[in-house]
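Workshop exercise sheet. Pairs work together: one partner reads the sequence aloud, the other fills in the structure field after running the prediction. Swap roles for the next sheet.
Pair: D.N. / O.F.
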Amino acid sequence: MRDLDIFKTIQCWLQQPESVWLCTVLETWGSSPRPRGSLLACNARGEFIGSLSGGCVEEDLIARIVKGEFSSPVSRIRYGEKAEDSERFRLPCGGILDVVIERLNPSMKLDDAIILIIDALARRRRVVLHRDFIEEKLLVSAPEPDSPDLFVVEDGNKKICAISHALGPQYRLLLIGISEVSRAVAQLALLLDYEVLVCDPRADARARWDIAGIEILALLPDDAVREYSDDAQCAILALTHDPRIDDMALMEAFNTKAFYIGAMGSLRTSSNRRARLELLDVTPSQLKRLHAPIGLDTGSKTPMEIAVSVMAQLTAVRNGKSL
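Structure field:
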């Protein structure tokens, strides 16, 4: 679930007006279905958006919100600390979730902050929401370089005094070219909560696409890259085996801030591609950004096997793991 959708819903609820509880995964230990910083928002009627665990944690937390258990500006709860919790809340083996619950009451200052957050996320810009519960301050700002996505200030009794949470646009995956591999990659990417766009200038190829929830772009590849993938939350994959399409996309991709650029093909195909791109004045430093052959070397052959290796590599790159 996108942060943008969550904060649009929060805005709607606050305008009714009514209180909203913003719940954030503060910390995880062991296995956890959702990462640190995951969000869920809920109103007093039990309506909610977002996810913290994908299991029964949400049901328990929402029921307690409806009962009025979290009336303070900030509360904290831990799931999975006891053995019976894992069974009751369907947490993975050894999984523990620390969740912070912020009560948001309608106010002009909060309305202004929500507007700033929605505006930034709609333009695919990261933004930080700061909440100081001691001095009752609320601030929205651009993130500082190398600042953590989630920063919590506690007192000596582990009481939360302040939270700074970096919010960002949903990770976006632009697939260049419609093929069986792009179909498999798209299916896995949707399960991994990517926003998926597929670009193919060929009308006959677009007519064969039948996977729901994906935007199809009838643009030239370089135009699609320029318009939809110029930020650090984007990955660009060239998957056609047609240099007239793939190379056009890649040349523009090197000018973007995309965190991942990849192209499908064998070692020989990839070597030939690099030689072509050098002739087209692509620099050695730009070529270093190119993952080709795409994906982890798992010996994959089938479209779904290739998709698994590709999404595993994207996950590693996103998490800053050296491959």
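Discussion prompt: The chain has a mean pLDDT of 89. What would you look at next?
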